[in-house]
Amino acid sequence: MMPAIDRPELRGLLKTMSSWAKRLDRKSPDKTALIEFASLVSQVNANSLEFDESLNNQPLFSLRRHLAPLLYADVYRDNRIDTGIFGFRREGAAIPLHNHPQMSGFLRVIRGSIKIASFSFVDQSASIQHPSTPVRFEGEKILTPEDFAVFLDPVQDNFHSVTALEDESFFFDALVPGYLDNECKYFQPHKSVQASK
Ligand SMILES: [Fe+2]
């Protein structure tokens, strides 16, 4: 059983997210649904996750005993959404550059602070056919629990890396429609790409 099932407030948020996700079509997502979905993700916090002790004591993270630098817990998944929590043990730990093709992403910091660096294809009609397909650096965002959920577009800004700026930073992540027939891919930045640390 996924942990969210035992958390009534979170279960209500996830159920409503899944309902709004019907209107987040890949090609032309409904603007109202986008705002509503982001608002729901923004309501996920340490209280709704019942998550207010040290990262090492969290029952959500089954990998905690192995001292992995990056922890992950599934929260809830159905045929419209895929949600989970990522946790970083130490400042500077990172999820390398990757994408979520054809998926809308929503990211909400629960504790600590993180930096997201984003990139887009220079040619929006391009696909990952060649290892040197050029992408454009779209900037960095620093996020804390005070910030509204960030929306990651299925096309624009679809490549990103996430870096912890504090020990024990973690964030909630929702993908629409989830992986289904898609998968995220990881990339090695070209040496000419100089994203600041
Ligand atoms: Fe991501």
UniProtKB/TrEMBL annotation:
Keywords: Iron, Metal-binding, Oxidoreductase. GO terms for cellular component: mitochondrion. GO terms for molecular function: metal ion binding; oxidoreductase activity, acting on single donors with incorporation of molecular oxygen, incorporation of two atoms of oxygen. The keyword Iron applies. InterPro entries: PCO/ADO, RmlC-like_jellyroll, RmlC_Cupin_sf. It comes from Diploscapter pachys. This is Cysteine dioxygenase.
